[in-house]
């Protein structure tokens, strides 16, 4: 079972989740929680101490806007430090752990995805850290967590298949997809029928 948003977890839940850690995982999408003042934040420190798998989620476009997992990772690192009043907690390595092996464990696929090793599926992104916003690269993990933007991802490989090479999509017609997005968005947000549609106060 995946608990899609762990910001509703209270201290009394930790032991229950720990008792089922082999088949339960928690995801954390802090941008939406902050945007809509939903709290408290997911108690990641306590969950990890109880060996409950934790990974990231983005939620939908209406609450997250960018669907940027790098952004969620960065916000998580900053807010977890702040919530714990401990700058030494949730270091860059922890942030990356949740993005890889942690996320794999949440969906019950530890060992097959989420890490670079023989026998795992070849899910890889190649990131360019040569941009000015990444300088100086004094610590690669820190750069990946706090500096990298989605546009820095140059190549994406999923299960050994290259889906994007040098920022060019290899399996998707970008213009056709954007047109489909626009057409669907127009239909989804049409108010001429007089009925209400889902609304978000931002």
What attributes does this structure have?
four-stranded antiparallel beta sheet; 13% strand; 202 residues; three-stranded parallel beta sheet
Structure write-up:
The chain is an alpha/beta fold and 202 residues long. The protein is built from 8 helices and 7 strands; from the N terminus they run E-H-E-H-H-E-H-H-H-E-H-E-E-E-H. The protein has a 4-stranded antiparallel beta sheet, with no helix packed on it. Strands 1-2-3 form a 3-stranded parallel beta sheet. The radius of gyration is 19 Å and the shape is globular. It starts with a strand and ends in a 14-residue tail after the last helix. The mean pLDDT is 93.
Brief sketch in words of this structure:
The chain has 202 residues and is α/β, with parallel strands linked by helices.
Helix-strand layout with pairing:
Blueprint: E1 2-3, H1 13-19, E2 25-28, H2 30-35, H3 44-49, E3 54-56, H4 61-64, H5 69-84, H6 92-106, E4 124-127, H7 140-146, E5 153-158, E6 161-165, E7 168-169, H8 174-188
Parallel strand pairs: 1-2, 2-3
Antiparallel strand pairs: 4-5, 5-6, 6-7
Give me the secondary-structure category.
alpha/beta
Q: Tell me the overall shape.
A: globular
Work out the radius of gyration.
Answer: 19 Å
Work out the number of β strands: 7
What kind of sheet is the major sheet?
4 strands, antiparallel
Tell me the helix content: 25-40%
| Beta-strand content estimate | 5-15%
Order of helices and strands: EHEHHEHHHEHEEEH
Low-pLDDT runs of 5+ residues are none
Provide the spatial order of strands within the biggest beta sheet.
4-5-6-7
């Amino acid at each position: 079972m995946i608990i899609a948003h762990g910001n509703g977890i209270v201290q009394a839940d930790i032991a229950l989740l720990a008792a089922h850690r082999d088949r339960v995982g928690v995801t954390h999408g802090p941008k939406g929680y902050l945007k809509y003042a939903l709290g408290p934040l997911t108690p990641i420190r306590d969950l990890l101490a109880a060996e409950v798998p934790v990974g990231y989620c983005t939620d939908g476009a209406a609450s997250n806007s960018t669907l940027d997992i790098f952004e969620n990772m960065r916000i998580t690192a900053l807010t977890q430090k702040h919530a714990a009043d401990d700058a030494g907690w949730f270091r860059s390595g922890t942030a990356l752990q949740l993005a890889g092996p942690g996320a794999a464990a949440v969906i019950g696929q530890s060992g097959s995805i989420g890490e670079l090793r023989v026998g795992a599926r070849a899910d890889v992104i190649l990131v360019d850290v040569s941009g000015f916003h990444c300088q100086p690269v004094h610590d690669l993990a820190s750069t990946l967590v706090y500096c990298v933007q989605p546009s820095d991802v140059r190549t994406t490989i999923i299960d050994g298949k290259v889906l994007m090479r040098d920022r060019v999509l290899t399996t998707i017609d970008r213009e056709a997809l954007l047109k489909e997005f626009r057409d669907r968005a127009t239909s989804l947000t049409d108010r001429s029928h007089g009925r209400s549609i889902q609304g978000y106060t931002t």
